[in-house]
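Entry for the shared binder. Reason: the reviewer on the internal report wants the predicted structure included alongside the sequence.
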Amino acid sequence: MNSVQRSSVYMYDGHVAIRPFLPVDAQPAFEAVRESRVDVAHWLPDLGSTHSISDVSAYIDRQPDAWASDDAYNFAILEHGPGVFLGGCGLTQINRRHGFANMYYWVRSGKTKRGIATGAVRLLARFGLEILALQRIEIVVPLGNTASIRVAEKAGAVREGVLRSRVMLHDVMHDALLFSFVQPDFSA
């Protein structure tokens, strides 16, 4: 169990913000998924299978329990200030024994190539390393996903190598690049 209260988490860098998903995010998140389905369905099959607002609402409703049990920390990516919904990101596959988690991220198609994902990735890495006290955040990106590779690189994640047959997408195994952030990456 973790002691970080969901309601107290709002992180921003002056341009982009992340905060835990709230019930009011269901409609804008559904619209963002619908807008982005063609662009992200290959890389994020779970997102591509979101077919209704009730699917999004059910996902959001599960988040407090996932947070409380230390299973996942999923966030809405927002435009800082007006709060426009831009995408989602999260830490999953948390391994407390070895102090690491996996990071994912996506930005709605109409808002890509503006530094939004890069900002969200850095904020989420800080959350994991500083607030959750993890030692390592991993980003596993299928080799063909050039947009996500660029985001990891621009955010300052260290490229560690190619993992053979690491990611299953649409019943096919794919090689992936492994990137990471570790505690010293954010030390003063």
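Summary line for the report: Strands lie at 11-12, 16-20, 73-79, 85-95, 100-107, 136-142, 158-169, 172-182.
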